[in-house]
Amino acid sequence: MEYFYSLLILVGISVILSLSLNLISGYCGQISLGHAAFYGTGAYAAAMIAQLGINIPISIIFGAIVAGVFGFIVGFSSLRVKDDFLAITTMGVNFLFIGFVRQQEWLGGEMGIYSIPATGLTKMQYSLVVTIVAIFVIMFSITIKNRWMGFAFEAIADDEDAAETVAINTSKYKLTAFILGTMLAGLAGGLYAFDIRYIGPDSFGFTESISILSMVVVGGIGSVWGVVTASIILSLLPQWLQFISDYKLLLYGGLLFLMMRFSPKGIAGIFEYVKTRTLKI
C-alpha cells in the first residue's frame, strides 16, 4: 500500500502543478517555459525555513508566498513581452534559477538539501493531505474560470489589444495570473519537499518545465478537467512503464507535437468532439 500512497502523492502534486501553469498559460494565454523554477523556489523556501524549526504547514505556505513574490518579479519584468519572447524569457528564468542554486553553498549547491524535517504523518495521511489540497486547487481553478477574473483572462488570451479596448486592465490581470499560478507552483514544491525530504537542482530543471507544459497541452489548454486527466495519465505512465522514464523528454515532446498537429484542444477537445458527434446520432 505504501507504493499506492506514493503514487497518490505524485498525482496530487502533478495536478496542482499543471493547474498552476494552466492559470497562466491556459486561462491568460501567457506562455511559460520555466514553471519548474517557481516549483523549485517553493520547495527550497519551505525546506530551508522548516530546518530553522518552523512548523511544516507554515513552511509550505511560506514557500508558496516566496514563489509568488518571485512570480511577481518575473511577471512584472515581462509585462512588455509576449508570445515567443515571453516563452524565451521564462525559459531563461528556469536556467537562471538552476545556475544560481548550483552556485550557492547555503542552498546545498550541487548536492541539494538533505534531512528536511519529517511531517510526522504516515504515507497514507500525507497522501490524504495532498489529495485534499489538490481538490482545493481544482475547485479554485473552476471558481476563477467562472468569475469575472476568468472572463478577463479569457479576453486577454483571445486578443490582448481588443481586451484593452473594453477597459480591461491587461497588465493587472496578467500579473495576477502570474502571481496566483506561481504561488500554486510553490505550494506544490513545498508538498514535494516534505514528501521526498531531499531536494536538488536537477529536480527543477527545464525537463520538469516541459513535463508540466505537456500536461497542460495534452489535457487541453484552459480546460480544468482535461488538464487534471492528462496530469494523472502522464504522471503515472513513467511509473508503470519504467523504460519510459529514460525517454521522458522524448515522449512528452512527441505528445506535444502530436497534440498541436492533430488535436490542438487536447483531451478536452477530443471529448467535446465525441460528445458533439454522439448527440447528432
Automatic annotation (TrEMBL):
<feature type="transmembrane region" description="Helical">
    <location>
        <begin position="60"/>
        <end position="78"/>
    </location>
</feature>
<dbReference type="InterPro" id="IPR043428">
    <property type="entry name" value="LivM-like"/>
</dbReference>
<keyword id="KW-0812">Transmembrane</keyword>
<feature type="transmembrane region" description="Helical">
    <location>
        <begin position="214"/>
        <end position="237"/>
    </location>
</feature>
<feature type="transmembrane region" description="Helical">
    <location>
        <begin position="6"/>
        <end position="24"/>
    </location>
</feature>
<dbReference type="InterPro" id="IPR001851">
    <property type="entry name" value="ABC_transp_permease"/>
</dbReference>
<keyword id="KW-1003">Cell membrane</keyword>
<protein>
    <submittedName>
        <fullName>Branched-chain amino acid ABC transporter, permease</fullName>
    </submittedName>
</protein>
<feature type="transmembrane region" description="Helical">
    <location>
        <begin position="36"/>
        <end position="54"/>
    </location>
</feature>
<keyword id="KW-1133">Transmembrane helix</keyword>
<keyword id="KW-0472">Membrane</keyword>
<feature type="transmembrane region" description="Helical">
    <location>
        <begin position="85"/>
        <end position="104"/>
    </location>
</feature>
<dbReference type="GO" id="GO:0015658">
    <property type="term" value="F:branched-chain amino acid transmembrane transporter activity"/>
</dbReference>
<dbReference type="GO" id="GO:0005886">
    <property type="term" value="C:plasma membrane"/>
</dbReference>
<feature type="transmembrane region" description="Helical">
    <location>
        <begin position="124"/>
        <end position="144"/>
    </location>
</feature>
<feature type="transmembrane region" description="Helical">
    <location>
        <begin position="175"/>
        <end position="194"/>
    </location>
</feature>
<feature type="transmembrane region" description="Helical">
    <location>
        <begin position="249"/>
        <end position="271"/>
    </location>
</feature>
<dbReference type="Pfam" id="PF02653">
    <property type="entry name" value="BPD_transp_2"/>
</dbReference>
